[in-house]
Design goal:
Bound molecules: glutathione
Helix content: 40-55%
Number of helices: 11
CATH architecture of the largest domain: Up-down Bundle
CATH topology of the largest domain: Glutathione S-transferase Yfyf (Class Pi), Chain A, domain 2
Number of strands: 4
CATH class of the largest domain: Mainly Alpha
Largest sheet: 4 strands, mixed
Shape: globular
């Protein structure tokens, strides 16, 4: 996996120095590569070249035995969910609010337009992806019955096709260049091979397939794209999950 931009600590001598962990300008992401919501934030940080620290906090289901959840994360994450971001002494949870907050707090290479109407337009499209694409995507890998997986796969295909209509007139989802809408869809693209292995059978509209390639070539895309090993880990994890659910269901059926 390519690592997120990490601040070198070698030359810093005081906690107050800008960008140092715990300093006033420090940006720290508590997240994990397997979490699509965290990946949205990692994409934005890398795409915007915002130096940051990463504290790996795997989702509960993916935590290795004995993993100690950092106290700071427990204290500041309202729902115990990743991603959580700290800037200086302030914290934000929830990927969409985090993406907006990062725009307000850092001006370089914005992923939202400066005008209110343009901003609202991009955020509406980002929220649409969150609402229409994410539930069927999650339904594919958390699906345990063939019929449910097929339904999620069809719904995901349909949502991506509708999203593809936004690409009729341009290369990007919500403007002349990459925006927060790309940050929200990239984790879906980055795990697409894994989704196929777990039962996604849809064919991508050619516009969406080309958009996926464009996103992968962005600095943010290449920073978060999954390696073959990450795809395998994801697929194996959900195959094991399905086997466990199937085992407990057949036990119940026998008793
Ligand atoms: N709406 C949240 C969802 C975040 C979320 O569901 N995160 C998952 C991991 S992908 C999580 O932390 N779940 C709690 C847990 O694993 O204990 C967002 O957009 O950031």
């Amino acid at each position: 996996m390519r690592q997120a931009v990490r601040v070198s600590m070698a030359s810093t001598s005081t906690r107050e120095r800008a960008g140092e962990r715990g300093g006033p300008d420090d940006v720290t992401l508590f997240g994990h590569w397997i979490c699509p919501f965290s990946v949205r934030v990692s994409f934005a940080l890398a795409q915007r070249e915002i130096p940051h620290h990463v504290v790996d906090v795997p989702p509960t289901a993916a935590r290795p035995k004995g993993f100690v959840v950092p106290e700071e994360f427990v204290a500041h994450s309202p729902k115990g969910e990743i991603p959580l971001v700290r800037i200086g002494t302030e914290y934000r949870a929830d990927s969409l609010p985090i993406l907006e907050w990062l725009e307000d707090r850092r001006s370089a290479s914005p992923l939202l337009p400066g005008d209110a109407a343009g901003r609202a337009f991009v955020l509406e499209r980002a929220a649409w992806i969150d609402r229409e694409v994410f539930p069927p995507m999650i339904g594919v890998y958390y699906g345990t019955r063939t019929d449910a997986i097929e339904r999620s796969s069809a719904a995901l295909t349909d949502a991506l096709e509708r999203m593809g209509q936004w690409l009729v007139d341009g290369s990007w989802l919500a403007g002349p260049g990459p925006t927060v809408a790309e940050a929200v869809i990239v984790p879906v693209y980055a795990r697409l091979e894994g989704l196929v292995a777990l039962g996604f059978t849809g064919r991508l509209d050619h516009r969406v397939a080309e958009h996926l390639e464009r996103c992968r070539d962005l600095p943010g895309g290449s920073a978060v794209w999954w390696t073959a090993a990450q795809t395998d880990e994801f697929v194996n994890r959900f195959e094991r999950y399905r086997a466990i659910v199937a085992g407990s269901t057949s036990d119940q059926a026998e008793t």
